Model the fold of this input.
Amino acid sequence: MLRGRVRPRRGGGFATWICYRILPPAGEVLIITCRLQSMAGISLTPRRKVFRRSRARSTMFLLPAWFAPTSSLRVAFHRARGAVIGDNVEIGYLVILDNLYPEKVIIEKGATVAARSTILAHDEALSYTFAGPERVAVTRVCEGAFIGVHCVVLPGIRIGRSAIVAAGSVVTSDVPDHGRVAGVPARPLPFSTEKHRADVNADSR
Done:
């Protein structure tokens, strides 16, 4: 049984209507996509085939990546989806590393992404409103950074080394190394301790 819907996009024929809006098993998505392109007289290129295979892989490992009982397993499943994740990374339950472009999400060693946070690598707002193209950009969480629960990091953002994003924040701009941000949208917080200032000065030498 097919569920979902197919949404047209400006400037495209029937074959460019977005097949991933249909949510059957991954194999059926590939078959349906081929049929749509065949009906429109457009051949599948190798690049599109590879893209759809990676999309199927991302979908296949999504639920295990959300619900696996240990952080190390969740990291392994997110890697299987295509996300680039370093050593000693902690990932909480129900963390979303971009459902469509997980390979554009980079999490460096020692970073933490707490439960129910979302790290995006694409933005379809303009596409959905017929105001422009979809935006896809690499989003990077640098070494030792900490993202609290229920945060959202928008596409193309860099979370700096040892930075902290407070719980519930929406990050719309880059966070500098050792930065502390909170709020919607996330704004810098003042340094709270002399020790933090000393750490920053030591790293800058």
Q: What stands out?
A: The first strand starts at residue 84 and ends at 85.
